[in-house]
Structures are given as structure tokens and as C-alpha cells.
Amino acid sequence: MLNPAKFFQMKMLWDKFTANHPKFPKFLQAAMGASIGEGTVIEVKITKPNGDSIASNIRLTQEDMELFREIKNFSQLD
Length: 78
Known about the structure:
Layout: H1 4-20, H2 23-32, E1 41-47, E2 53-59, H3 62-75
Antiparallel strand pairs: 1-2
């Protein structure tokens, strides 16, 4: 069950994050609209201020696509 107060808090934090980093939501929108499908590789890299970095990637399966459809549907509720 979704806690409405927690959802509101997360929405406020997300709004502040997107105000601080306006290019990131645009990137996510472009990525979600870019025909992501089975076999797509998603890679994430984190670089610390000292230059150390860590990266990982996943290749999407058909089962993963249901999660992406739900995320896309949820993000369209705004």
C-alpha cells in the first residue's frame, strides 16, 4: 500500500532534485521514448570527486520490459 504522505515527500524531493539537475529528467524522457526493448544494454557509471569510478551494465530481458512499462505508465500520472 502506498503511503500518501511518503509519496508527497518523495514528490517534493524529486521536484527539488529536478530543479537542481534539469537535464536529468529530459535524459530520462528521451531514454524512455527511445524504443528500449529486449537486448538493450543500460550502463551506469559513478565518478567520485577524487576520480575513482565504478560502472555496471545490464542487458534487458523480456521480463524486464514489464517493469519499464509500469515505470513509464506511473511517470505519466503527473
